Fold:
Amino acid sequence: MHPTMRSYAGWLGAWLMAYMCMSTYATSIPFQITPRIVGGNRVTERIPWMVSMNDPDFEAGDQHYCGGFMLNSEWFMTAAHCVVLYPDVDTFNVSIGILDRREIDQADPDSQVHSSKIQRHVCHPDFDSKYYINDICLVHLADPVNISAFAVLNDNTSFPAVGASVWFSGWGVENEHAYTIPFVLRSAETQVVSIADCLASHEEATSTNLCTYADGVDACFSDSGGGVISANEVTGSLAQGIVSGIVSWGVGCARQDNPAVNTDIVQYLGWLAEVLPRSAYTLASDVDAEGFIRSNVLDTAESLTDSETLPTRAGQQTGG
Structure:
């Protein structure tokens, strides 16, 4: 897990303690997780459902340490290790819809940037903090947010296909030796690799992982929890795309022939359905090629809570 690297990030005493405790393990066997944008570019479109999780104990004040993506106005999805390893996470702040971390929510009703405290979380009961298996978690906000669109989750086990392009997006460091994280959201294009190819590099990977690789491109420290996104086939937009994975772990960042190992969301839709009602999240089969919610879904959707909204398209919503 590169304990010495992450201890720089010094991001929170709990992680520092965790890494210190794991240092003997991490140096005694080859498997070393990087809780992980390398080789990418600045994002120019606002992704309204993009979440930045902030550590209030960082010496300079609230500091981004993990990503996530909003499923509705109250719940977002992230990696379990972004939550479980932080004992005080339910007191943390999150920012939603920011492009630049220097943006401040001025409580302007027209603002596209929102913030909230975390109220509670529900992580997968079988999350393995040693090998990052079942690395998925749902987090509930203390204050619902009024955003223009929510993430659309993949529900097709054949998508994305091996070789298909997907994108990481986050505020993580730009290489594994960096000591600062960028202010502006970045994204990077990579490709899906087969589980067989992934296992050739990472015997700890499982069928519940979605692995990706491209030369010189990867997620890195503080990108954990963000989405692995397939851009919209019509518009090319990430905001209107499909989220198939959750950034989980890898060995270093962008190392040769070392795929990134991400949580494959489609493998966890059964668990998701046990935690949230079907009306509380949008699946790819609910929308058409341009991102519009299909009319039959709107007609048959279960009732939402007063504060929840159902997106009709990225940039639009209904209800709430």
Observations:
- The domain at 160-260 is CATH 2.40.10.10 (Thrombin, subunit H).
- Residues 1-32, 295-320 have pLDDT under 50 and may be disordered.
